[in-house]
Design goal:
Strand order of the largest sheet: 2-3-4
Structural class: alpha+beta
Helix content: 40-55%
Distance between the termini: 18 Å
Order of helices and strands: HHEEEEHEH
Number of helices: 4
Oligomer: single chain
Strand content: 5-15%
Length: about 130
């Protein structure tokens, strides 16, 4: 939703022309098609939805050697930290959110199709609204 709102905002302000908006929406739809495919075909690929958590663009990388936590700093940049306490706190936060989220890979076909069809419809609605 935040990507769609950004496309709408930048198109309305003239910072994004129709062709650019159309390309972004096409790429977004392609990305969603790829994610939908992976939830069906890759047993170890996990995608969770949570309608209550929005606009959280932080990233946590965790492996046996190192943890790294990326926090959005500006529109185009992140601050990275390897601080153990910060990474552990963020891991606890993500684990808590996952417990309260729905796995699209583990859910039934109906739930998965409802989610992805809703996303595709929102892209198409914005495309029509912008007259692309």
């Amino acid at each position: 939703m935040s990507v769609l709102r950004q496309v709408s905002f930048y198109h309305e302000t003239g910072l994004l022309n129709g062709k650019e908006a159309e390309l972004i929406l096409d790429d977004l739809k392609s990305l969603l098609l790829e994610l939908e495919s992976k939830t069906l075909e890759k047993p170890n690929f996990q995608l969770f939805i949570n309608d209550l958590v929005i606009l959280n663009n932080s990233i946590l990388f965790k492996n046996s050697f190192q943890n790294s936590y990326f926090i959005p700093f500006s529109m185009f940049g992140y601050i990275m930290t390897n601080d153990e306490m910060t990474c552990n706190d963020s891991l606890s936060y993500f684990e808590h959110q996952i417990k309260n989220s729905k796995s699209l890979a583990a859910s039934g076909n109906r739930d998965r199709k409802v989610f992805f069809n809703k996303m595709y419809n929102q892209i198409d609605q914005l495309r029509n609204q912008l007259s692309l």
